[in-house]
Write a structure and sequence with these properties.
Blueprint (H helix, E strand, L loop, with lengths): L5 H32 L1 H4 L5 H9 L3 H13 L4 H9 L4 H7 L8 H10 L2 H26 L6 H4 L2 H4 L3 H12 L4 H27 L10 H11 L14 E4 L3 H4 L7 E4 L1 H18 L7
Antiparallel strand pairs: 1-2
Bound molecules: zinc ion (2 copies).
Amino acid sequence: MENISDSELWSRIVMFGEAARKWRQKFLGLLPEVARRELWRVHGFESVFVFAFKVGGVSKEQVERVLAIEERLRDKPVLHGMLISGEVSVNKIVRVVAVATPENEQALAGQVKLLSQQAVETLVRDMKSYEIMGKSQVRLENVSNQFSFVRVHSEESLGLNQEVVSKLQVLKQKGIDINEAFLTFLEQRDQDIQQVKENIAAEVETQTSSRYIPANVRRIIAKEYGIKCAISHCQKPSRNIHHTARYSMIRNHNPNFLAPLCRQHHEIAHAIDARVQKMKYRHIGNT
Ligand SMILES: [Zn+2]
Ligand SMILES: [Zn+2]
């Protein structure tokens, strides 16, 4: 053992770790059926838990979890198949169980295969929050008069400093509608950004540029989206500027087709992209 190098030792243990995980996944996948047939009893084990622990080194919690998930996936054959074949980890599948339906399971299964565990988590959170937003919107419409959204955001939470506050107070004393002034300013800001983007778009449309996104494009993207992920409810810092139209097909950095995304939403964007491309351009292949 002493004569093998650090890198050899490392690659060996990583390989064994990955193999162990893969085989444990397959072991877990078969457990529900073994439990159903009570094969553990036939072979002299006290319970399915004892069997799973002694033979597979799997804890009681893990067994309970896989049995519960399998139960919930009985009406979703695609996800169910992925679980029992051990194709995808229980950790990933457990995350989509809450949002999976017989109607969406096919699409979800595709995502689960492509995405990391963290990205799957983000995807599920998105799906849940869209659902909540949909419901709460209905609720808010019914009682809209009882709410004053302006009051919800206090000056403090917006981080207004003393200078801004006193200037606003002066405006207010003059009888100027501050909300309207703000809305005008924000509208103007949007228009300015759009104008700059249109100008840049006209310039880059004819170029076949390098992969490097030019500074003026980066600047206007930063001005529009700030430092956070462009997905509206996501508060994570943006990591990548994503080309929403496929870069390899268009080959320019038109800011109208760029969006800064956090790591998880970037992964999701590419997974969706890959699926769409596969359907649309099956004959071309992906790059
Ligand atoms: Zn991207
Ligand atoms: Zn995000």
